[in-house]
Amino acid sequence: MKFCAIICEYNPFHNGHKYLFRKVKEAGYEHILCLMSGNFVQRGEEAVFHKYIRARHAVENGADAVIELPTAFAVSPAELFAGGAVHILSSLPCVEALAFGCESGGQEDFLRVADLLSREDKAFRTALKENMKDGTSFIRARNAAILSMGWDVDEGFLSSPNNILGLEYCRAILQNGSNVVPLPFLRTGGGHGEREMREDFSSSTALRAAMREDGRHGKKALRSNLPADVLGDAETYRPLPYKGAALVSLLRSPREQIARTPDCSEGLENRLASMAKTNPDFDLLLSKIVSKRYTLSRLRRILLQNFLGVELKAVKDFLAAPLYANVLAVKEENAEEILSSLSGGIPVIARKSDYSLLKKDALACFALDLRANDLYNALSGTYTNEFLTLFV
After folding, report:
1. CA 23/CA 158 separation, integer angstroms
2. Which residues, in sequence order, are bridge partners of residue 65?
3. Is 309 a member of any domain?
4. How far is 228 from 226, CA to CA, in rounded Å?
5. Number of domains composing the chain
6. Is residue 301 part of a domain?
7. How many angstroms separate the CA atoms of 231 and 228, rounded?
8. pTM of the predicted model over 0.85
9. 146-203, pLDDT tens digit by residue?
10. Is-contact 315 76, C-beta < 8 A?
C-alpha cells in the first residue's frame, strides 16, 4: 500500500481540506496519510480540539491514517516545521508523494526555486544579512535577497503564505535526498489568515473566530463550511485558559531558558521577561513587542515553546536522528494492512508496548509529545491517554 502524504494541522478540519483530499484522489493516489500537528500548533497556540478528535475528523472525511508530527517540529518556525515533517515522511517507505496547497506555481516552479534557495552562495548570504539590518523579518529579507540576485523568480510566488511553506517542504526534500514527489495544488476559497467568512471555503482563521462567537451568524457560517462530524464538535467548543498559563510560565522561567527556544534570538528573552512584569496580559504583552522583525506568530511561538520546554538544540538533534511514526487514528476497515505498510522504516507507535522501541533522541522527542498531551489535558480538564490509536 502506497500513500500520498499531507502535512497538516486541521485546526479545524474544513471544506478546503476535504477539497485537497479530492484533488489527491483525482491525481491517482488511492491512499492518504496525514502527518498532523498534535495539541499545539505552529501559529503559537493550543489547537481548538484535542489531537485525537482532529485525527478522527480526518479519517472520517477520507484519510486512511493520521500520524503525529512531533511537538518539537509542530511548534517551530517554518524551516524546522517543514524539515521535521519531511524527515518523518522520508523515513516511511510507503510514502510516494507529498501534497500541499499553494497560491500559485506548479511542481517544477517549487523544485526550481527550492534548489536556488538551497544554494545560498556568498552573494546571497551577504544580501540577506544586509536586508535584515533594518529589522525586516527573515522571510521578507530572504525574498528581497533572491530578487536582487536577478534569478527568474516572481515576487508573488515567494511571498504567498502557503507557497513559503511549500518551498520549505521542497527544500527539505532536496536536502534529504528524498524520493518523495511534491504535489502542489492551487488553493480555493479564503486565503491563509483571511478573517472574512465565505460561503463554503473559509480559512481556518475565520472559522476559529466563528467558533468563538455565540451569535447566529457564526453558527450559520460554520454549518456551511464544516463537514457534519466536525460541526458537531465545533458547536460544543470552549476556549482553553492557555494564554494565562503561558504567561505564568514566562514569568517563572529563567531568561537563559527562554533564550534556548527555537524562535528566540538577539536577546529577545530579556525584553519578553521584563515587559511581562508590567504587562501581565498575554495579548497586551505581545502588542507592545511586535515589530517588523518580531512578528506576532514568532512571539506567540516563543511563549509556547517555553511553556512546552522546546529547545533549539534538541530540535536540531531530532532532525538528524531516526524518529518514529505515532499513529493517532487509522481507518478500521483495513487497519492491519495500513499499519503493516507504515512499518519497515522507523518504529511505528500504535500501542503502549511500542514505546519500548524508541531510543536516545527518539525517546527524548516522544517525551515532549507526552508532556504536550499532559499539559493539554490539564488545560481542558479532560484525561486523554497518550498511548491511544483510534480505529475509525
Report:
1. 23
2. 33, 330
3. yes
4. 6
5. 1
6. yes
7. 5
8. yes
9. 888 888 888 888 888 899 999 999 999 999 999 999 999 998 765 555 666 666 788 8
10. yes
